[in-house]
Design goal:
233 residues, alpha+beta, 3-stranded antiparallel beta sheet, 16% strand, Ntn_hydrolases_N, omega peptidase activity
Length: 233
Amino acid sequence: MHNGNVGGWQYIKRPLGDSLADRWYLGVKGGTDSEWAFALFLDLLEKEGVDPSSDPGPEGFGQALLRRVMVKTIAKINEFIRDIPKRHNVSGIETRSLLNFAVTDGHTVVCTRYISSKTDEPASFLPSPQNWRLTSLDNWVSVPANSIVTIHKQTVLLHPIMDEFYSEDLNHDRSSCYAVSKGLVSTAPGTTVQPQNTESKAPAISVNGARVDDHAGLAQHQLELANKCAISH
């Protein structure tokens, strides 16, 4: 599962595809960045000596392995993006990636909340500590920016993704403008999601202190916020 976008996708799709073994390249049936990112994950998993199509066994492929390959997948995507100016002699394109990924081998779930920026907030990732299910918004907890969550049986682990976009300061100020402009409401200060009113047809959402009671209103509010962000930058 992928919630977000890969920056500079039209420029990195070919080199990403060229990096894959034939079985994973030929296995992709569509053209979305999510499909190709998953193919990259499978390719890197195989290069670790594991056949992704094999039976993972009673304990799975191992949480450390899945976590390591997920981090390598993100690093590889960033590497492709860094090569865009050199390969294509272009500049001024959007290269920020929102990479909220989730994979499982049937025993372990590995999820990320990540953005390839040190000044922007990633897309929302709000698991519930109560059985780690998305229940009501009352008991959601926010995963820190650029982190990886591992869930294995009853154990939940949280690790930082240590690269050039990571900040050790959890209070590091990040803007939610980019995530909001993509329709991925962030949990940064000023953008909050309120518990759903059982009497209304849609969740009541507060953005920058203004209540929005329908999805069309939220979309308009997100657009206005995105425009303000564009002006401020």
